[in-house]
């Protein structure tokens, strides 16, 4: 079903759970957003560009302008000037009556735009978010089925559907909150994300592979973590904990392979302490999303995959974590997670 701007239908569901491993897509039943009247003009679109995204160039910006114009979209371009600015720009766009905010960048730009839209919604329905993936990592764009080529992504914005997706929220020890669309990783993958922020030699899958190898070689920590969810508590040394709304991290690792973006639940991954050799043996399983099955042959304690609407992770040790691929914290002792079911409108 392909719905244009001028012919949105009310309460249309996207039936038949869809899983396409190559595009990391996993959807449940989506609901279409509000109905548009015949001939109604779409409000101006605000396009937020991150000029520091690894794949950004003035050539890409010029082509982007041309493709959006070809699609007949009424838009304006604004650029971020530093970390956190996309959040401010997205929030301001809502205040200005802008209907669609398009994030042009990678995971970080997309996450900041989500935060701006969610903050502006005051816990109501947020959006609408569009995505043009031009970053090093584009996990959320992949998760919602956005093409990774510029022209096709622009075409998707003009002719796609508005779908209602869940958004996760993490609360830090100081009370600060952050929203996320894909995953939060604590421990091993948090360390990888932290190292990746200072690495510019590689991109995409090559960088993910290198960062993973490096982390296996130098990171051998498994702090005792207390993980509370669904009325139970697990306390043991943990290599990593992942709270997943989406399925994939670092382009290739299906950390929460059964996650759905609209089921109102997190997929929780708990990986116990393992040796370096055991970790190396687990990596192929993470690429296939079979770690919970194959892990029992590699590690002594089971790898846990569970679904839950709330999670709390605490430790006496300092916790390193990422949020949608960007560093979240390096010294937290407690992180709380809750989910906002189908609270973000995404054009995809």
TrEMBL record:
Alphabetical list of Gene3D superfamilies matching this protein: 2.60.200.40, Probable inorganic polyphosphate/atp-NAD kinase, domain 1 (3.40.50.10330)
Pfam families: DAGK_cat (PF00781), YegS_C (PF19279)
Any one GO BP annotation for this protein: phospholipid biosynthetic process
GO terms for MF: ATP binding; ATP-dependent diacylglycerol kinase activity; metal ion binding
Cofactor(s) required, per the database record: Mg(2+)
Endpoints of the signal sequence: none
Domain DAGKc: 40-174
Protein name: DAGKc domain-containing protein
Species for this entry: Candidatus Nealsonbacteria bacterium CG08_land_8_20_14_0_20_43_11
């Amino acid at each position: 079903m392909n719905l244009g701007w001028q012919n949105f239908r009310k309460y249309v569901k996207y039936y038949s759970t869809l899983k396409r491993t190559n595009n990391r897509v996993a959807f449940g039943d989506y609901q279409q957003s509000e109905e548009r009247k015949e001939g109604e003009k779409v409000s101006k679109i605000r396009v937020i560009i991150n000029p520091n995204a690894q794949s950004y160039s003035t050539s890409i910006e010029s082509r982007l302008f041309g493709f959006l114009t070809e699609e007949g979209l009424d838009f304006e371009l604004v650029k971020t000037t530093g970390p956190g600015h996309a959040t401010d720009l997205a929030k301001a766009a809502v205040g200005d009556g802008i209907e669609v905010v398009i994030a042009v960048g990678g995971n970080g730009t997309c996450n900041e735009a989500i935060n701006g839209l969610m903050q502006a919604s005051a816990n109501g329905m947020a959006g609408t978010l569009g995505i043009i993936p031009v970053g090093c990592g584009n996990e959320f764009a992949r998760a919602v089925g956005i093409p990774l080529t510029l022209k096709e992504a622009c075409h998707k914005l003009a002719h796609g559907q508005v779908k209602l997706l869940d958004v996760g929220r993490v609360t830090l020890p100081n009370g600060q909150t952050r929203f996320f669309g894909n995953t939060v990783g604590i421990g091993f993958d948090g360390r990888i994300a932290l190292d990746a922020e200072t690495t510019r030699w590689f991109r995409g899958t090559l960088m993910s592979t290198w960062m993973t190898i490096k982390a296996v070689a130098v990171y051998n920590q498994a702090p005792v973590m207390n993980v509370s969810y669904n009325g139970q508590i697990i306390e043991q040394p943990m290599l990593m904990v992942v709270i997943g709304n989406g399925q994939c991290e670092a382009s290739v690792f299906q950390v929460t392979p059964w996650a759905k973006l609209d089921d109102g639940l997190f997929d929780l991954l708990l990986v116990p302490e393992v040796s370096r050799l055991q970790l190396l043996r687990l990596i192929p399983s993470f690429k296939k999303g079979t770690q919970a099955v194959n892990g029992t042959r590699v590690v002594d304690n089971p790898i846990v995959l569970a679904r839950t609407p709330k999670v709390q992770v605490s430790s006496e040790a300092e916790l390193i974590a990422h949020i949608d691929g960007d560093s979240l914290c390096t010294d937290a002792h407690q992180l709380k997670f809750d989910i906002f079911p189908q609270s973000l409108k995404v054009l995809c």
